[in-house]
Amino acid sequence: MPQLVLMENGMFIVSDGTGDIPIGDDRIGLYYHDTRYLSTYVLTINDLKPQGLSSSWEQNFVGQLQLANPTLSPEDGRVILPHTISILRTRFIKDGLHERVQLWNYNSFPVSIQLGLLFSADFRDMFDVRGFERPTRGVIRRPAAFGNRATLRYLGVDRVRRETEIIFDRTPTRYELEELFVTESAESKLGIIVPGGDMLYEPGIPEEVTDEEPLAVEELPEHERDHHQYAVKVVYEIELEPQKPYTVAFQATPRESGPRLPAKAFEVQGRQLHESYSGWFKDCAKFETGAFTFDRLINRSVQDLRLLMAEFGPQAVVTAGIPWYAVPFGRDSLITSLQTVSLNPDIAVGTLRFLAHYQGKEWNDWRDEEPGKILHELRLGEMANMGEIPHTPYYGAVDSTPLFLMLFAETMQWLDDDELYQELLPAAQKAIEWMDRYGDLDGDGYLEYLCRSTRGLRNQGWKDSRDSVAFPDGTLVEPPIALVEVQAYAYAARKGMAALFRRKGESERADALEQQARILKDQFNRDFWLPKQGFLALALDPNKRPVPTLASNMGHGLYCGIVDEDKARQVVERLAAEDMACGWGVRTISSLMPLFNPMSYHNGSIWPHDNSLLVAGMRRYGYDEQANHILRQIYEAALHFRYYRLPELFCGFARDESHHSTPAEYPVRCSPQAWASGATILMVQTMLGLRADAMDGRLHVNPSLPSWLERLSVRDLRIGRSTLDLEVTRAGEVLHVDVLRNPDRIKVETGPGVAFSTPIS
Questions:
Q1: Which of 391, 318, 337 is nearest to 130 (CA)?
Q2: Residue 292 contacts by C-beta under 8 Å, 6 or more apart in sequence?
Q3: For tag attachment on the chain, is the N or C end more exposed, with fewer CB atoms within 10 Å?
Q4: Per residue in 240-283, pLDDT tens?
Q5: Which domains does the chain carry?
Q6: Facing residues of 116 across strands?
């Protein structure tokens, strides 16, 4: 069974297919603020693991797991046959992990069982979990257990007291304390339980432990200290009557040096969470096609976007992905917001406000920060607090700042909000200044990157793994590097801001930005174009030599409009050729390149967000057939993933239709992942050909439906303060746009060859 994921407001759990967090699994757990607050959670019946029958997590905010008992041999000697006791686990996240366990005895006689719930927390930082070395860790303190409450405790090297407080609706029969030694080797990780023996706590007997009490871990051999932790086993001795339910519910709440939280009823919290999701869907545009599987893909993407929203101060911000990147990222949040502005522009507004708040203020080598620069990644855990990593925030991204400007301009196209414009204008001005003063390292007109931080990223574009910017033979390109897509973003940023300034009466600013954009476009098409190969270089090296690696990055140039018309056809054809478009989507690099590896992170895999941008770019230049060809590949890949959830990436093996191959999953992908979910929404917007102009009260619709769709409708599409409904249908070779509801008389314009009708007033 696959791993199961739930998340709410930045807190998330990843468990195995039966709902457990097994001992020694170095990925899954309950996480909050980059800290693992549960590293073990195992349910047993008479110390045996139940059998998983089914699991359902399709709604994102609640999950259910249906389990059954194994063969049981109680002390009375009567053997309990397997599959005669139902074990139903229902859980959600709402200010903590809430779970209800329901037992149902289908035997004709009473059964005495022991329900065991084993909890442990290693309180490891996310970067520690991912393998970053630490000079030292904090101290895991002895847990406290009393009445219906157990607390796992840790004192960090940052002096923050972190606790996991577990409150039960039924007082357990007893608590058993166990010591865990999780040992590590190069090949494997093994969990060993050493029984606690005399460490037994009876409900009703308080355990007196102060926060200053030393822990025996300090007396352990040094090589064992980092892997020592305690576990609390919660035991219920239960007499299950025939055909009657027995339930136990609990909430496990992460806490950072704060007061104890009151217990909250399972049903009340669940209802509030359901209402929150209902409100989210109400605020979003509703896309529908009548094609069952494609509609499921759309709905899955919308649900995943809600799942990934988290509050940071007054803003709700879309986080990047689970499990590794459940935090705000500049690039990821910005691209997701660009993809989804037609779905819900509030996503973009929250992203812009959050990133403006953290905009760079100083020259800081450790954080790769400069004035006006937009952050790359913000972390909130112990390692960030201690300065072991530079993510407070870290600014090592060359593309976040132009993407910020692109999103600002695009959001104004959809909303035309004067107050928001005035609020964000200072940040936009600083971002423009960063591109001119700091982003261009040598004054040649291109944005380049060069890592200064000792723990920063060598590569600072969206393909940021160490080997992702290389010559065709695999030789790494040395920084400073000018990436092809980053110049496209810079061009689109200047064009978008020029148009915005012109609308606001700032003609002088607009003229200056337009001139910069024209110059950049001319030199870009001169310096990045490889006439013999017929495609755009991946990058320019420090000597301004083009890097002739055939990569998907150039498709972003189509999205941004920087590619000359006479070169666009060749770019489109190379992207759509079989060495790039393998049947499941466009690979990150061509299979003809010597460094191609379909199982690599960036050198041959397929990224849905990457495909959504290049497909939108193909349509921008009028190559509808090729765009629909790639759309179909990504759609058919999505059909093979559980719940039609597009992951962060998947392997770039060629599709073998004769043997009915399926897309191969990338082992350590994020799923759900924000810009993978956003990819679906951008592809729908691309099919509709939507372009908004809220200032003029105008919407341009230029649809192109793939052959496998007969219609596509959108309801509650927001333009400024207005909403409208419209539908695109196919009648033979002609597409027809019907405006179904338009109370504020938004002017709807259609492209050539599109039939059009408006509602009769």
A1: 391
A2: none
A3: C
A4: 999 999 999 999 999 997 777 677 788 888 899 999 999 999 99
A5: 4-272 (2.70.98), 284-688 (1.50.10.10), 693-757 (no CATH)
A6: 44, 235
